[in-house]
Amino acid sequence: MNVKFLQKATLGILVVGIKIAVNLASFSAVNAQIRPYKTIKTRQQNQIESILALSIEEQTNIRVYQQANQAVVSIDTDKTNGSGTIISRDGMVLTNAHVVSQGGVVQITLADGRKVKADVIGFGEKGLDLAALKIRGEINLPAIKIARPGLTQVGQRAFAIGNPFGRFKGTLTVGIVSRIDPARGLIQTDAAINPGNSGGPLLNSAGELIGVNTAIFTRGQLGGNIGIGFAISIDQVPEFLKAVREGRAPLVAQHQNQIFDEHLAKQLDFDALIEIKGNLDRESHILPVDNSYYDLYAFKGRAGQQISIEMSSNQIDSYLILLNSKDQELAQDDDSGKEQNARIVITLPEDGTYKLLANSYKAGESGEYELKIEEISPRIRLFFEQERIKHYI
Prior knowledge:
By secondary structure, the chain is α+β, with helices and mostly antiparallel strands. It has helices spanning 2-53, 56-68, 237-245, 378-392, and strands at 72-76, 81-86, 92-95, 105-109, 115-123, 131-135, 157-162, 171-181, 186-189, 201-203, 209-216, 229-233, 266-268, 273-280, 285-287, 292-301, 306-312, 318-323, 329-333, 342-347, 352-360, 367-375. The strands form four sheets. It has a six-stranded antiparallel barrel. β7 (157-162) and β8 form a beta hairpin.
């Protein structure tokens, strides 16, 4: 019985082994047939897994950009460049008044690279730095939805899209709403905003327009971002757009077209040194973006000429803004002159007329100041370079 049992057991093992071998062969054949399907499926799974691997914040960034970027345009005029937001499918664009202050017809570059013409059809009143454009011959453009007024809160995410320095079209920067200034109708954000971003959109996490980027604050002399930017709150937009659609909006930029008018500037005869005293008060010009006082000066300069401009006061927080002959900003400064004094040291890029705004940092600041403009000798220039190096160290 033991022998028979062993024989049966051996036979059973052999049969089981054959079945297993057959099954394995069948499985391999089937597996070989379905492998291409499994490979395709794996690629799809990898894409899904890649998306899922992104953080919620990253997914939001991507979604907002994809949703809004096609409706952000670049604007070019003879004097400057900026950005704008398409807010209706028939081509209405919202931007800053100071970007298109000359009015008339401007050139717009769409997100897909097409260059089209647009007419300036309205400006904000009482210094409101807004303008509306109408793109010619377009009826089916991507548009950004305007957020409901009054809902923006400090701490919420903020997204800026634009064309910084007129060279980097479609740039996205991300931050938060840092502060809301209802008195001036401004939203402060730490999302990077640079020259060329003016007029572009500030968006919420839903991709809705909550502000029109309009200005930056910087202590440097290159006008770069240091984390304090300002956008005109969307709360001011509905009334402006209503005036545009009803034909009541001015067709000439109020203040903006005169703000840098050379004929309104005090002409300075600059040879090697200018020293003057001034006073900012209610009789001075008003800078619309923040309602601060300023005096406007103009002087002739030479290409390659190196100059120092200093504004000092013990009554106001001095602020300097230097423009070239095309009203393009060359430099601005707040406190480089130590304490509340401002100083700009610069090499002039061309022969021509330069305009200088002797400005106060805060709205309504009044007081006397002293202004000094001088050409820098090599020895003084070396001193300034050493001071600059110490500052950065």
